Amino acid sequence: MPVSLPINPFQIDSTPSNAYDVCLVFESRASEASDTRGHKPSELVCARLLGYMLIHAPVDTGRDYLAKAILSCTDDDDGLKRLGKFYFDHFIRLFKSAKGPTPSPSLHPSRPSFDDDQEALKYGLVEAPKDQSTAKKHALIRDDYRCIVTGNTDFHSEENIPHIAERFLHERVPTVYTQAAHIFPVSTNKRIATDEERHPNTDYAATAWAVADRFGGVKVTEELNGAKIHHLGNVMTMQVDVHMKFDSLTIWFEETVCCVSKRHTEQIQYLRSQGGQLGRSSPHCYIYNNPPLPDPRYLQVHAACAQVANLSAAGECIDRVIRDLE
User: Fold this and answer.
1) Which of 58, 209, 275, 300 is most buried by its number of CB atoms within 10 A?
2) Which of 246, 186, 181 is nearest to 220 (CA)?
3) What is the pTM of this model?
4) In terms of Cα–Cα distance, which of 186, 187, 181 is closest to 139?
5) What is the DSSP letter of 14?
6) 8 Å CB contact between 80 and 47
């Protein structure tokens, strides 16, 4: 359910505050003229998308970068709509599982240096391997053969690993089919062609990764390029229904304070959805003996995307496109 932008939460006269005021004015002008039935995000969706991106930016440098881009479009509704459409295509659709056709390549509407980053990234991309079985096996071991969210035991592990079967008899937790859930999606680097000039899949991947770098603070081509996309910091074990909700941005993770102080301990954040808190009624600590853990920076970027998608209705717009294509 889309939500109007709240009052300005930033320090008066700061760059984010001034940019947020631009979004508020844009939202007020767009509210009566918005077309919520189209396949492209309306002006209203774009206004809210930019405003909520400022609020939920995972890093301060990303917030400042976006704020400067917004301020460069002050009193330019067409420019603000192009900027919102750019982040709709290359931020929301990066994480949203039902993406539809690869968007046409586009330039960042207000920051020339962004295109230099995108061009450099394009020629450094390596296609992700098609085989994810090794990533799943390693994640299962680290996650104690359980769904990281529900704690339910992996069905195949209970069937084939004696000590897991013995644990199941003792705990009597449900067994479920699990999958390797990637925080940053594998699909973006598939079917790319770095040897072809202006190939749409390659251009899209390079632009999306540039957004992840500038807005999210994650240097994807250094950390997640090629086979690194399957690095354990980017992979979690999830049962199938939870994985579908995670990839569709219906649920996300939020940081909590862990009460356990041991080596290789990490609090699994409260799980949130459009309707509020889900899952456990109190925080739950998972103790890992086999790091690396899911990278909290990646989870923060995913959470920012999910919250912006739901609050601005950008996620609904993508779902509508997919339904019409079907």
Assistant:
1) 209
2) 186
3) 0.81
4) 181
5) S
6) yes
Tokens of 130: 């098609």
> CA 165, CA 150: separation in Å to the nearest integer?
18
Residue 285 has pLDDT above 80, yes or no: no
Residue 126 has pLDDT above 80, yes or no: no
DSSP H helical ranges for the chain = 15-30, 43-56, 60-71, 77-87, 93-95, 112-122, 133-142, 155-160, 162-171, 200-214, 220-223, 240-247, 296-312, 314-325
Q: Provide the token pair at 235.
A: 């992979």
Cα distance between residue 78 and residue 278, in whole Å: 39
Instruction: For the chain, give the mean pLDDT.
Output: 78
Would you state the pLDDT for residue 256?
67
Cis preceding linkage at 292, omega within 30: yes
Token pair belonging to 207? 């632009």
Chain-centroid distance of CA 70 in Å reads: 21
The proportion of the chain whose per-residue pLDDT surpasses 90, expressed as a percent, equals: 45
Task: Name the residue with higher pLDDT: 149 or 34.
Answer: 149
- In degrees to the nearest 10, what's the CA dihedral of 216, 221, 222, 224? 80
Classify the C-alpha dihedral 53-57-63-66 as positive or negative: negative
Lowest mean pLDDT among 60-64, 200-204, 239-243: 200-204
- Average the pLDDT over each of 153-157, 246-250, 270-274, 317-321 and give the range with the smallest value: 270-274
